[in-house]
Each structure stands twice: as C-alpha cells, then as structure tokens.
Amino acid sequence: MRLLEAVDEAAAVERLHDLGCTDGLPVVVPTPERVARFVLASGLDGDAAIGEMGPLGGVATVEQISVNAVMAGCLPDHLAVVLAAVRAVCHPEFDLAEMQSTTHCTAPLIVVHGPVVDFCSVASGFGALGPGHRANAAIGRALRLCMMNIGGARPGVSDMALLGHGGKFTACLGESPELSPWGPMHVDHGFAAEESAVTVVGTEPPHSVIFVGDADDPSSVERLLDSLARVIANTGSNNAHFRAGVVTVVLNPDHAAVLDAAGLSRAAVRSELASRATNPRGHLAQLNPAFAGDGWPDDPIPAVRDPADVVVVVAGGPGLYSVVLPSWGAGPHRNRAVHERIDLDHACEVPGAPRS
Fold first, then answer.
1. How many beta carbons lie within 10 A of that of residue 131, not counting itself?
2. CA distance 350 to 70
3. Closest C-alpha to 228, from 307, 321, 316
4. Model-level pTM?
5. Mind giving me the DSSP string for 95-155?
6. Residue 314's beta-bridge partner residues?
7. Alpha-carbon gap, residue 155 to 98, rounded angstroms
8. CB atoms within 10 A of CB 157
9. Over the range 333-352, which residues count as b (16 or more CB within 10 Å of their CB) and which as e?
C-alpha cells in the first residue's frame, strides 16, 4: 500500500479528492495511526484477505478495508460490521463485478441484525435510511469506498450507472426484532439469535407504500398485501420484466402487526407477496415487447420467481408508510441477497483510543 504525504489535513483531503479516492464528500484522512487503531480493533492481521472485489479484482485486506472505514468516518467498533459487509459482497452469488459495471442504479443495502445493532447504535427506527445516524451513514459509506478504491468502480469508467441514486453513497439500517412479531430475521437464515449478522442486497431507492389499516375491517390484511405486491410488480422495475432477482420489503411495525394479527408468519408473508406480485403478459408487452416472451396476453407474469426472493425486514417508525426496494435482477446469479455473520470473536477494544 502506497503512503501519501501532505503538508496538513486540508491538503491531504484535497489530494484524496484529486486521486479519485473519495465519493465526492470530504473524508477523514486515513493516517497510519488511525488505520492502525482499526486494524488492532479487528483482532486480525492487516494483510489478512477478506475477499476479491470486482470489477478490477482488488484483494480486500483488513488494512485496506480499515483505510476506507477511517475515511468514511467509522469508529473502530464499526469495523466488524464493515468487514462482514465486504465479505458478503465478495460472495460470487452477489455478482459484485457485474453489479458495479451495470447501467442500472443498483446499490448495496446493508441490513444489520443482532446485538451489534445496539452495540454500534445502528438506527432501526425513525429515519433509519436517512441522515442523522452516524453508524448507518459511516458503515454504508465504508462499503461504498471499498467498492471504489479496492473494487475499482469509478463513475463513467467502470461504474456505468446511468444516474445512480443516493444509496450509492450509503444505505444501511438495523433490524428491529423487538418491534417485529416474527423475531430476528437472521435466525431464519441459520444464525443463532445471540449472533450478529448482515444481509446485503443490491437495491433501487425505496419505493414508498402507503396503507391505512382498520382493526375492524377484515379486508385490511388483503389490502395491505395487495398494496405491497403492486409496488413489487411495478412495471418500471427490472423485476417485473426480467422475472428474477430479489425484492426487499421493509415493513414498519404497524404494518407488520396487521399481517401478524391475520396469523401470517414471515414465510407466509413472503409467499403471499410472491404470488400476488404479477402483471399480465399483454401489459408488459405493451411497455417492453422485447421482455414479454411468448404466451397468452392474460398470462400472469410474476415479478419474483420464488418466495425466497422476497426479503422481509421490520424497521422504521410506526405509521402509514412501508417501503419496497426493487433490485437489478441480472448478473449470472441474479444479484442474490447474501447473509454473513459478523465475527466479533477476534475484535478487541482499543484502550483509551480517541473517538475522532
């Protein structure tokens, strides 16, 4: 790793901008001392390889990831989450190299599960995907900087997104198991409740879903499921036309409670949404004939192939709105959601380290 020099911090930040090492926003200068604190906090060797990041195939070492975590404004406590997120996107089924190169606006969404949510103060309630939450902003940004500086994704050069979206700066939220009627999501994927994990999935920006419930109206649950399904089947999305990829549904606690009161488990919600999120083939053919395929105009075309392709998370504040996040849905593996354990066994506390 090359060591850069500058006369002061302001000059160092400008040098990093000039070299294309930032996301366009100011960064914390990754001095050797700051980076060393993060490597120490990981409990791993600095040259330990976490994975290979496309499209340029850069090897993500603990030290290199630490450099980007420092730049993003992370605390050493956040590094274990960042390492897990990097490890997740390096899984072949995430299709990182292809995702980084596509013209679609996809960006990685990090969902953090387990005790580390509270330990790192990852927001899971009001505004969890918005500004004002340091851990959320810094962890998501650290992954993006790794994707740029290790994976080599540069706008208009190797990152060919036509427009992009705000989630390409950062997109991270915590799961709210205490507000979920179904318990922690990571348990459904083989992790113990006391473990911590990340789920990473490539998504578009959130599409808002408005729903007003009525406890005395037996049709409430049907209306909510149909409202969510229609947004999943949005005919402007890749999912509707490619009939592939993952869709993420973030339910606010009130909407999750409506579904639970109707006796639906998380698995049942995923199944209901997958079966309802369809479009008539003829309608798709009117919009994009190249993707419609052969068959009858009334054929129902699913936006997702399998209930397992619907990720259901409970987060956010209570009220009228939940969100659906469509995906790119392309690549060799259709840009799967990947789940990775957050390894806290090796992490250690940095004695007396400043929090700057």
1. 9
2. 15
3. 321
4. 0.95
5. -HHHHHH-SS--EEEEEEESTHHHHTT---STTTTSSS-HHHHHHHHHHHHHHHHTT---B
6. 251
7. 14
8. 10
9. ebbbbbbbbbbbeebeebee
Angle at 88 between CA 307 and CA 53, to 5 degrees: 125
C-alpha 28 chain-centroid distance = 23
C-alpha angle 279/111/321, rounded to 5°?
A: 55
Measure the CA–CA gap between 109 and 198, rounded to whole angstroms. Answer: 10
pLDDT in tens, the chain (356 residues): 788 899 999 999 999 999 999 999 999 999 999 999 999 999 999 999 999 999 999 999 999 999 999 999 999 999 999 999 999 999 999 999 999 999 999 999 999 999 999 999 999 999 999 999 999 999 999 999 999 999 999 999 999 999 999 999 999 999 988 889 999 999 999 999 999 999 999 999 999 999 998 877 888 999 999 999 999 999 999 999 999 899 999 999 999 999 999 999 999 999 999 999 999 999 999 999 999 999 999 999 999 999 999 999 999 999 999 999 999 999 999 989 999 999 987 666 655 544 44
Q: Are 316 and 322 in contact (CB under 8 A)?
A: yes
Name the helix (H) or strand (E) containing 15. Answer: helix 9-18
For the residues of 173-226, what is the DSSP string, one character each?
EE--TTT-TT--GGGGGT--TTS-EEEEEEE-S-EEEE----TT-TTHHHHHHH
For residue 321, report the phi and psi dihedrals to the nearest 5 degrees: -115, 130
- Asked whether 84 and 341 are in contact (CB, 8 A), the reply is yes
308 token code pair: 């397992």
Sign of CA dihedral 240, 268, 136, 317: positive
Residue type, 314: V
